[in-house]
Amino acid sequence: MNSLLWLVLCGFPTTNAASHSLKYFYTAVTAGIDFPEFTTVGLVDDEPFTYYDSNIRRETPKTEWIKKNVGEDYWDKNSEASLSAQQTFKENIGILMKRFNQTQGVHTVQYMYGCEWDDETGATGGFDQYGYDGEDFIALDTKTWRYIAPGHSGEITARTWNHHPAELEYEKQYLTQECVYWLKKYVSYGKSTLERREGHLLSCYLSCDRILPPCRHGNLEERRTGPGYGRRAGGDGAQWGRNVPDHVSPAREA
User: Fold this and answer.
1) Half-sphere exposure of 165 toward its Cβ, with a 13 Å CA cutoff?
2) Is residue 64 a contact partner of residue 189, using CB atoms and an 8 Å limit?
3) Does the pTM of the predicted model rise above 0.90?
4) pLDDT digits (tens, 9 = 90+) for 123-144
5) Residue 173: other Cβ atoms inside 10 A
6) Which of 33, 42, 114, 242 lies at a CB distance of 3.0 to 4.6 Å from 249, suitable for a disulfide?
7) Hey, what's the signal peptide range on this chain (predicted)?
8) Domain boundaries in the chain?
9) CATH of 4-253, one of 3.30.500.10, 3.40.50.10420, 3.40.50.300, 1.10.760.10
């Protein structure tokens, strides 16, 4: 687990007090273990503020500042979005197990996306990455705005997604504009309580071969429903779901 995606999932130190981040994590695991089959977590400046899992089946707040600033419709919409993504990810695990000729064992699909904003310089950045069984599967290159696969396993999906320019443009718009908009809004909501803890590390709750206790991070108010979701990608139809600020996160097929 030495790739960028899994480094981010397991945590990295925050060093710039002026830099803020909004991150979403989706995790799906095979059934039959003492761990929710699907979880989503949203974090602002590495602080969990929303959470959903397949046991509670409801998006829940993890901070007072999000409770005070959004209404019940926010939780209703995001609960529906996470429930939809839950089914998508369940199907993805089965699809990818077939792709890799796996018939049993514990397997995981993980997805991480979000953005960063420096409130001093105004610089922004985005990230959008997927993994399977602790390895990078596919990632969006935010310099070329094309998906890349670090290994053979994700090449079919990368080629297919890259043939949809409208969806790639949507990803660019979301990561560079919409996500940053919501990040700024969330920072304003929680400015009195958010802490910039230098050296703070998020604990990893999934490793390559075993499940660790969940961090109970949250999901967020902004899910996205862009054109890039619910599409078929390359023969076996693996789908991916995600979240985004004040919008509902759809499912996308790999």
Assistant:
1) 0
2) no
3) no
4) 999 999 999 998 999 999 999 9
5) 12
6) 242
7) 1-17
8) 4-253
9) 3.30.500.10
